[in-house]
Amino acid sequence: MFEIRAATKFDVLIIREILCESYRYVANVEKYSEEQLTFLLSERASVELINRDVDSGGCFVACENGDVLGVICNTKNEITKLYVKPSFHKKGIGTQLLRLMVGNLFEKGHSKIVLGTTERNIPFYEKNGFVAVSKKVATGIMKPNIVVIMESSSKEENS
């Protein structure tokens, strides 16, 4: 069984490894160009960015026997990262990370939580209480990918 804890400075390099492995997996599935993959690996998986996420206190990791298997991060009410090592997909790790983060954000007073994802991941987020509210074509180097903006609202707001 795995545990979830706040990420620390000691996790930064393994988080980077998880992001790089995940970006390579997604790039293959989504047929990203080499240029798009290079962007993800150099910009989105930069140690500087991961350090910023960890320093903000909005980053959690799922661990089993001391090994980090997944990561989730947020900025304000936006979930900015949710990645699990591809070899550990479909084991409930992403779901547990997402539930923890959603609970934390609602406890902090956020009434809505947003995230961007690809169309392929919509069913996962819908199963976890999110609703697709818009679709847009990614800008810049990630064009022509579709980004789906999803939201989850607190129970109080839905009442």
Main sheet, how many strands, which sense, barrel? 7 strands, mixed
Do you know the CATH architecture?
A: 3-Layer(aba) Sandwich
Query: Would you tell me the structural class of the helices and strands?
Result: alpha+beta
State the end-to-end distance: 35 Å
Q: Can you tell me the CATH superfamily?
A: Gcn5-related N-acetyltransferase (GNAT)
Shape field: globular
Average pLDDT value? 91
The proportion of residues in beta strands is 25-35%
Strand order, largest beta sheet = 1-2-3-4-5-7-6
Give a topology summary.
Blueprint: E1 3-6, H1 12-30, H2 34-44, H3 47-55, E2 59-64, E3 67-75, E4 78-84, H4 93-107, E5 112-117, H5 122-127, E6 131-137, E7 146-153, H6 155-158
Parallel strand pairs: 4-5
Antiparallel strand pairs: 1-2, 2-3, 3-4, 5-7, 6-7
